[in-house]
Amino acid sequence: MLPPIEVAGRWIKRYHVTSDPAGIAPEVERAAYAILPELLPAPDETPPATFVVLHRGGDDGAYLNAYSWVWDNVLHFRGAAAGQPVLGCPDGDPSHFVSTDRPWIGCVWELPPILHERDAWVRHMLAPRAPEVPDLDAYLTDSLPEGTTGDRA
Fold first, then answer.
1. Among 12, 64, 72, 146, whose CB has the most other CB atoms within 10 angstroms?
2. What are phi and psi for residue 54, nearest 5 degrees?
3. 99 SS3 class
4. pLDDT of 91
5. pLDDT > 90 in the chain, percent
6. Do you find a cis peptide bond into 128, omega within 30 degrees of 0?
């Protein structure tokens, strides 16, 4: 499990999706997190929490999906891609990320964290199941167990 990081005043929970046993290349990860501030919403009264899915595809593509909690219980989405000309990327470089304007929220391999994160937000941040005081620290440590996203049911 990757530890949360702080970016632009928001706490970011991180998920990496790849079929490569070596994981996501460090230069792709650095480039993805460098564009992340562009994908984050303006602050509101909601505790500043976001989760991201960084996906390195089987082709030249790399994808960063940023899901941020806003308006107390709403999930804000922005995405970026690299190495995928169909999505407006200027070249095949998987570390050259650009923001995308597609309304897509993620491919089938990127979706399992959304279910977990929804349930974790309810558990730790919203009544009636949450404690009287929302617990951002508990939310930040409640992550989908490590493993592949392809065999989750």
1. 64
2. -105, 120
3. strand
4. 95
5. 80
6. yes
Distances (CA, A) of 67 to 19, 39, 52, 91: 22, 9, 6, 25
Q: Give the whole-angstrom CA distance, residue 40 versus residue 44.
A: 12
Q: At 4, is the pLDDT very low, low, confident or very high (cuts 50, 70, 90)?
A: very high
Surface-to-core class of residue 130, CB atoms within 10 Å of its CB (0-12 exposed, 13-18 middle, 19+ buried): middle
Pair of tokens at residue 88: 């407006």
Q: How far apart are CA 39 and CA 20, in angstroms?
A: 26
Pull the structure tokens for residue 107. Answer: 């491919």
With a threshold of 0.90, does the pTM exceed it?
yes
Q: Are 23 and 16 in contact (CB under 8 A)?
A: yes
Residue 151: pLDDT over 70: no
Give the neighbor-by-neighbor strand order of the sheet with 74-82.
5-7, 10-18, 49-56, 62-70, 74-82, 98-100
Q: Which positions ≥6 away from 80 have C-beta within 8 Å? A: 32, 35, 38, 39, 63, 64, 66, 97, 98, 99, 100
What is the DSSP code string of 17-59? Answer: EES-TT-S-HHHHHHHHHHHHHHSPPP-SS--EEEEEEEE-SS
